[in-house]
Amino acid sequence: MHLPTSLLTLTSLLVTHAYAHGLVSSPITRTPGDATAAVCGQTMVDFYLADNTSYPEALLREGGLDENYDPELCNLWLCKGFQFGDNSAKVVEYVAGDEVPIEVFIRIPHLGFANVSIVDTSVNAVVGEPLRVWEDGYADPAEFPNLPEDQVKFSVTVPELGGLCVEPGKCVIQWYWFGAEQTYESCIDFTQPAPDPDAVPNVEARYWTA
Ligand SMILES: *[C@@H]1O[C@H](CO)[C@@H](O)[C@H](O)[C@H]1NC(C)=O
Ligand SMILES: *[C@@H]1O[C@H](CO)[C@@H](O)[C@H](O)[C@H]1NC(C)=O
User: Fold this and answer.
1) Which of 126, 175, 185 to mutate to test the pocket of ligand 2 (most atoms within 8 A of CB)?
2) How far apart are CA 175 and CA 120, in angstroms?
3) pLDDT digits over 28-64, tens only?
4) Nearest residue CA, atom 7 of ligand 2?
5) 160 and which of 10, 96, 117, 206 could share a cystine (Cβ 3.0–4.6 Å)?
6) Degrees (nearest 5) of the Cα angle 177, 10, 42?
7) Please, are residues 190 and 172 in contact by the beta-carbon 8 Å criterion?
8) CATH 2.60.40 fits 91-210, yes or no
9) Ligand 1 geometric centre to CA of 52 (Å)
10) What is the pTM of this model?
11) Is 183 in the pocket of ligand 2 (CB under 6 A)?
12) Closest-lying ligand to the alpha carbon of 131?
């Protein structure tokens, strides 16, 4: 049987993609577009547009980087390399104490660990303590498709960030899952207004009058 080359390529792509897959389906997360193509290459963008649940190790294995890939500007392990420039219309504002409901879509499970953290994208550093950590037992195929609700439908509480996340693009809430040597990341762009310098501390809460 002779298959057209393009069909063969497609078939092998589909087969090699079928390992483990997942993403945050809600709230809205970063997706790749022209700004990402400019620093990561159009080949990478097309790869994730074809399957947005794929992962950097597969991208590398399949030769998904072209001459426009700039490792200084495109970090494949921070929001998969997806750039803020494509996502400036999706920024949400959270104040300290906001509960953010998160829904995760796992297409193919693989046992691993996961965490959710606020990341300062300018230095790729986790801010403060992780908001959630699953040290192991995350996305266990033995429980699939009925993964524990705590792993796929949960909420995190946004802390006070002291003015760090005022600028859009600076901070994301990043979901990170590592299973079977595969890395998954989804990023929610958000801002938090700076603390009000004129806010009067609630004196009554600390002293009482007799
Ligand atoms: C991922 O791709 C699917 C299918 O094209 C689409 O319905 C979904 O909205 C995308 N999700 C994200 C988070 O990009
Ligand atoms: C999640 O855990 C991995 C592995 O321990 C760690 O490298 C990473 O910094 C954590 N990521 C976030 C966003 O918390």
Assistant:
1) 126
2) 14
3) 999 999 999 999 999 999 999 999 999 999 999 999 9
4) 176
5) 96
6) 65
7) yes
8) yes
9) 6
10) 0.85
11) no
12) 2
